[in-house]
From TrEMBL:
This is N-acetyltransferase domain-containing protein. Residues 6-168 form the N-acetyltransferase domain. InterPro entries: Acyl_CoA_acyltransferase, Bact_Acetyltransf, GNAT_dom. Keywords: Acyltransferase, Transferase. SUPFAM superfamilies: Acyl-CoA N-acyltransferases (Nat). Pfam families: Acetyltransf_1.
Length: 204
């Protein structure tokens, strides 16, 4: 049996530059140096967590997948809950990314296997991940691993949401004023009809 060329290891702070390239689209829209600084912080916290707990009790870990000795992909694993309201424990597999040159070589499967092992070590029954909604390949891959849709995450700049809310509030106010005017006209018409009917009855 041939030896697999894919291996997993824990990421270190030294991996921050290459992971900034891998995860560029998932990071803050800042320059590369700041992205590396962000990842250095993430990796430092993961290393601190690992050093202060046993293998089966740490709450976060960054795994790097290597293909024949080269960094091919990575995933951030974190113990969390299914939602802020549903406190069922789960392992979040955050951004399981693979460099384009190493796709379809078992790297993504190895990363998700690492997520499952991480969950199994902690007795956690659920693994959660996310895929770009427009990436059919990523979503098909997750579906093949029994990961079904749970929620659709929607994100927008705060200012954009505020603008839409303001526009919506203005439109609702305009609609409410128009409705009140319509009601006023209807009531006035009914009063006029009643007066006309009363006058006709008195004359009859």
């Amino acid at each position: 049996m041939s030896r697999s060329l894919v291996s997993l290891r824990r990421a270190t702070v030294a991996d921050a530059p290459v992971l900034a390239e891998l995860w560029g689209e998932a990071l803050r829209r800042v320059d590369h140096a700041e992205q590396v600084a962000d990842l250095t912080r993430v990796l430092t916290e993961a290393e601190r967590d690992a050093s202060g707990a046993g293998a089966a009790s740490g709450v976060s870990r960054v795994l790097v997948a290597e293909y024949d000795g080269e960094v091919a992909g990575a995933v951030l694993l974190r113990v969390s809950t299914l939602s802020p309201l549903n406190l069922e424990p789960c392992v979040q597999a955050v951004s399981p990314h693979v460099f384009a040159a190493f796709r379809r070589r078992g790297v993504g499967r190895a990363l998700m296997d690492g997520a499952v092992v991480f969950a199994e070590e902690r007795g956690i029954d659920h693994v959660m991940t996310a895929a770009n909604s427009v990436s059919r390949d990523a979503n098909r891959f997750m579906a093949r691993l029994a990961l079904g849709p749970h929620a659709m995450l929607r994100v927008a700049p705060t200012a954009a949401v505020r603008a839409k809310l303001t526009t919506s509030r203005s439109a609702m106010a305009t609609s409410a004023r128009a409705e009140r005017r319509q009601v006023t006209r209807v009531l006035a018409a009914r009063r006029s009809m009643r007066r006309a009917q009363a006058q006709a009855q008195s004359q009859g």
